[in-house]
Amino acid sequence: DPICMQIIKDAFLTSCGHSFCYMCIVTHLHNKSDCPCCSHYLTTAQLYPNFLLDKLLKKTSAHQISKTASPVEQFRHSIEQGREVSIKELDVLSTILAEKKRKLEQEEAERNMQILLEFLHMLKKKKVDELNEIQNDLQYIKEDVNAVERHRIELYRARDRYSMKLRMLADDPLGSKSRSSSVDRNTIGLFPSSRSAHGGLASGNLMYKKMDGSQRKDVSVTELNSQHMSQSGLAVMRKKRVHAQFNDLQECYL
């Protein structure tokens, strides 16, 4: 099998007159005891350094490197060969290395800026989407606020109309039955049934007003205290109900 497919390094001559790389011929002789070129019997004891060929090959290699290699490679080859290097060559090499370093730093900085710019664009898009979502939610809340305000105003107006009709009824207790019936029909449904707990004109309160004077005078202090405690309990319950409604609304909106 052929050996030394590239330029010979550390040339050695065989007894049959052929030259090979030292490592190549030694490796071959470990497997076979013949010359790779002429098949003549050969051992490692029949190998001799070929100084002349080795010198010529080194010169040829240096010439090829000087034509094709970069200054850095030429400098490295010179150092490997033990050649003296002048100050001028060192200055040229330092300039080349500094320029190479500056170029690499410039390329790295450009890559970092590109990565940072892409990240900022992505972050900006994300925040704009979040802002649009918040603005949409805010618009919905504004519309709900306006609707609730309108409904509250309607409730206030209904309450005022109801109070005015009550005053008219109180000023004219002997008014016609049709008028009283009209008041009752117009006021039904304006307020929730819980008005009976707030002092409104529920059926229980009307019955209480129909009681004669002697019955009202018989109300004991214990009953009044019981009513006061009942009103306090209702206030607490009403407060809890408001908090529960607030929590439900908060979960709905948020």
Automatic annotation (TrEMBL):
Q: Which GO terms describe its molecular function?
A: ubiquitin protein ligase activity; zinc ion binding
GO annotations under biological process? proteasome-mediated ubiquitin-dependent protein catabolic process
Q: Among its keywords, does the record have Zinc-finger?
A: yes
* Keyword Coiled coil attached: yes
Ordered alphabetically, the record's keywords are:
Coiled coil, Metal-binding, Zinc, Zinc-finger
Q: Superkingdom, according to UniProt?
A: Eukaryota
Name of the protein this chain belongs to: COP1
Give the organism, scientific name. Brassica rapa subsp. pekinensis
- Species lineage, top-down? Eukaryota, Viridiplantae, Streptophyta, Embryophyta, Tracheophyta
